[in-house]
Design a protein that fits this description.
Length: about 375
C-alpha cells in the first residue's frame, strides 16, 4: 500500500523503515502544538480491525545538544514510572509513555544529521488540550503534583541535565543580554519597552536561584515543562492520566513545575494572543491549581516550597517571556514559529501576566496560606 507523507518530510520513509510495525504504516501526518520537537502521528491499518496509531518524534537539535542524554533519561524515567504504576495496580500502558524499538533493538533511530527519532504508542482515548475548564485544570494540577510524588525516590544521580541551566533565570537573563548586545537582526530598537521591562526586573531573576543556593529550596526530580498540553486527559473520566514531554525531566525546583502551569493555564488567552486586553491572570484558576497540585504531591512539599509557590509562578512567566524575547532578537532559532512576530507576541503576553501577578502578589501568597 502507498505510504502518504507530508510534502515537507520525505525523509520519514527511511526513518519509519527503521522501526518494527505490525503492518507497514500507511501514513504519517504533522501532529500536536509543541514548540520544540517535530511530532508526527503514524497510522497502520491491519487487514481487520481499527487503525493503530503511533507518535513519531524527531528531537530538536537546537534544544537538545546531546540527544543520547535525552533518550537515556527518557528510558530511565518511563521504566521507573511503569514499575511504580504496576506496583500500585494501575494501567501503566496509559499512565506513562513507552518506546518502540528499532529493528536493531535500539530505543531510537539516529539519522544522518545526528538527530534522534523515537516511536511511541499513541495513548488512545485521551485528549491533549490547549485550554481547559476549571475541572480539567484541577485534574492537570493533580497529575503534575503526583508526577513529582511518584518520582520522589527516583535515583536522581542517574539523570543528566538535558539542557544545562534550563530554569536558571539568572543565566536566562545573561543570555538575553548577550542576544541584545549582538542584536544580529537589528530588532532591538523596535522592542525597547520589552527590553526595559526585563532590565527593570534583574533582581527578581535571582530570587529562586538564591533560595536554592542557600539550601532553602530542595532540588528534586521535576518535569520542568508543565504546560497544560503536556498532559493527556482520559476522555471518559477527565482525569490527567499521562504526563508527556519528558525531555526536560531532570533535577529542578518543584515551585517551577507549579509556576509553569500557572503561567500557561491561569488565564483565558492563547500564549501568542495579540490583543493584550484579553490576557489577564486569573487568581481563581491559580487557587484551583494550587489546591490540586498540593494534594497531588501527597504532602511532599516543604514549608519553604509552599511559601515560594507564588514566586515560581511569577518567575517562570518572566523567564519564559525573556526566552521568547531572546529568541526573537536572535532570529527565532529555538521555538517553532508560524508567523514572523510570533515570539514577540508570546513575549508580550508573558510580560502582561507578570505585571498582573506583581499587582496581586500579596493575594497570591494569601491563597497558598488558605489552601494549605
Ligand atoms: P514538544 O516537546 O514539541 O512539545 P510533545 O512531546 O509535547 O512535543 O508532543 C507534541 C504533542 O504530541 C503533544 O502535545 C500531544 O498532543 C501529542 N503527543 C505526544 N505524545 C503522545 C502520545 N504518546 N499519545 C498521544 N499524543 C501524544
Ligand atoms: C516549550 O516543548 P513545549 O512546546 O512543551 C519549551 C518550554 C516553554 C514552552 C513555552 C524544551 O515547551 O520550556 O516553556 O515551549 N520547552 C523547551 O510554550 O524549551
Ligand atoms: Mg510539549
Amino acid at each position: 500500500m502507498k505510504l502518504y507523507l507530508p510534502e515537507d518530510a520525505p525523509q520519514l520513509e527511511r526513518i519509519l523503515a527503521a522501526f518494527s510495525f505490525p503492518v507497514p504504516p500507511v501514513a504519517a501526518v504533522h501532529y500536536g502544538c509543541g514548540h520544540i520537537n517535530d511530532t508526527y502521528c503514524v497510522l497502520c491499518q491491519p487487514p481487520e480491525g481499527d487503525c493503530i496509531r503511533y507518535i513519531l518524534q524527531g528531537l530538536s537539535t537546537a534544544a537538545f545538544p546531546d540527544q543520547a542524554v535525552v533518550m537515556d533519561n527518557f528510558e530511565k524515567i518511563t521504566t521507573f514510572l511503569r514499575q511504580k504504576l504496576l506496583a500500585l495496580g494501575e494501567d501503566a500502558s496509559r499512565g506513562t509513555l513507552s518506546l518502540i524499538p528499532t529493528h536493531g533493538g535500539n530505543t531510537y533511530y539516529t539519522d544522518e544529521n545526528g538527530r534522534a527519532w523515537r516511536l511511541m504508542p499513541y495513548v488512545e482515548g485521551t485528549d491533549c488540550l490547549q485550554q481547559a475548564t476549571p475541572e480539567l485544570f484541577a485534574a492537570s494540577a493533580k497529575a503534575f503534583g503526583r508526577f513529582q510524588y511518584l518520582l520522589c525516590d527516583f535515583p536522581v544521580e542517574t539523570l543528566r541535565e538535558t539542557i544545562v541551566k534550563f530554569h536558571d533565570t539568572e543565566d536566562r537573563l545573561l543570555k538575553f543580554k548577550q542576544a541584545l548586545q549582538a542584536d544580529s537582526l537589528g530588532r532591538a530598537e523596535a522592542v525597547r519597552d520589552e527590553i526595559d521591562f526585563v532590565l527593570a526586573r534583574e533582581q527578581d531573576c535571582s530570587v529562586l536561584q538564591s533560595a536554592l543556593k542557600a539550601g532553602i529550596l530542595p532540588l528534586r526530580v521535576t518535569h520542568n515543562d508543565t504546560k497544560l498540553n503536556n498532559i493527556l486527559f482520559d476522555r471518559a473520566t477527565g482525569e490527567g492520566i499521562c504526563v508527556i514531554d519528558l525531555d526536560t525531566t531532570m533535577p529542578g525546583l518543584s515551585v517551577n513545575d507549579f509556576g509553569d502551569s500557572i503561567r500557561f493555564g491561569a488565564n483565558h488567552s492563547a500564549e501568542d494572543e495579540k490583543d493584550l486586553s484579553k490576557v489577564n491572570f486569573d487568581i481563581e484558576l491559580y487557587e484551583i491549581y494550587a489546591k490540586s497540585f498540593i494534594e497531588g504531591a501527597h504532602g511532599g512539599l516543604t514549608e519553604a516550597e509552599l511559601e515560594y509557590l507564588p514566586w515560581g509562578a511569577r518567575l517562570m512567566t518572566l523567564e519564559c517571556g525573556i526566552r521568547f524575547l531572546t529568541d526573537y532578537l536572535s532570529g527565532d532559532t529555538y521555538f517553532h514559529i508560524h508567523y514572523p512576530e510570533q515570539n514577540l507576541d508570546r513575549c508580550r503576553t508573558q510580560f502582561k501576566l507578570v505585571r498582573d501577578m506583581e499587582e496581586q502578589f500579596e493575594q497570591m501568597h494569601a491563597v497558598i496560606r488558605a489552601v494549605c
